[in-house]
Specification:
The protein folds into two domains: 3-14 and 87-198, HAD superfamily/HAD-like (Rossmann fold), CATH 3.40.50.1000; 18-83, no CATH class. Helix content is 56%, strand content 11%. It has helices at residues 18-28, 32-41, 43-48, 53-63, 70-83, 89-100, 113-122, 124-127, 136-139, 146-156, 170-178, 189-198; strands spanning 3-6, 105-109, 132-135, 163-167, 182-185. It is elongated and about 50 Å long.
């Protein structure tokens, strides 16, 4: 294993803040399960860059049979960005170690435009760790689409079997394996370190 391709959220960055998730549901005025069903049903196109934040939240509202005002859309968008805005520094330490060892790296993240812009502004040191930066909103493909992985494979310029893909989402790891990449389902930094040692 000579190259590592990382997922962002749930690996390099933290998953959504539970506190902010609760705040989003409360602000929306809708049932918890209905809210998250609508949220995720519209998310893929948003991550892929098909729509922007306001369009996304209008679509979520439509699924909830609600007409969010512009002010509500702005607030939900702001809360959503806040919910995804923390780095996993322990994973970043692992990545810096890989860089020191000369390991080629890439990042493949499902991330909408507004959130990509925020991370560039707040955490440029994180994005800067990856010579290959596959942000779904900018490459027009989102995991688990094969085209998202193909975009990275072309730029990493190594055979798929020489790449370890690290993601906390089992479906994404399965999709990567189907394309010939090695896969590791991220659950903790210690387990990641063991997987990297195993090659």
């Amino acid at each position: 294993m000579n190259t590592v391709l990382f997922d962002m959220f749930g690996v390099v960055a933290e998953n959504q803040s539970p506190t902010v998730r609760d705040a989003m549901v409360e602000y929306s005025g809708h049932d918890h399960d209905a809210f998250w069903t609508a949220y995720w049903a519209e998310r893929h196109g948003y991550d892929r860059g098909d729509v922007d934040g306001p369009e996304y939240w209008k679509a979520v509202g439509a699924r909830l049979e609600a007409s969010f005002t512009d002010a509500q859309v702005a607030r939900l968008l702001a809360l959503d960005l806040d919910s995804w805005s923390a780095i996993n520094e322990d994973t970043v330490d692992v990545i810096r170690g890989l860089i020191d060892d000369g390991t080629p790296l890439g990042l493949l993240s499902n991330i909408p435009t507004e959130l990509a812009d925020r991370f560039e502004e707040r955490f440029p040191h994180v994005f800067g760790l990856f010579p290959v930066l596959g942000l779904s909103c900018r490459i027009g493909h989102a995991k688990p689409e094969a085209a998202a992985f193909d975009w990275c494979l072309e730029r990493l310029a190594v055979p798929a079997e020489e790449i370890l893909f690290v993601d906390d989402n089992t479906a994404n790891v399965t999709a990567a394996r189907e394309l010939g990449l090695r896969g590791h389902v991220f659950t903790s930094v210690p387990q990641l370190r063991r997987a990297l040692k195993q090659g």
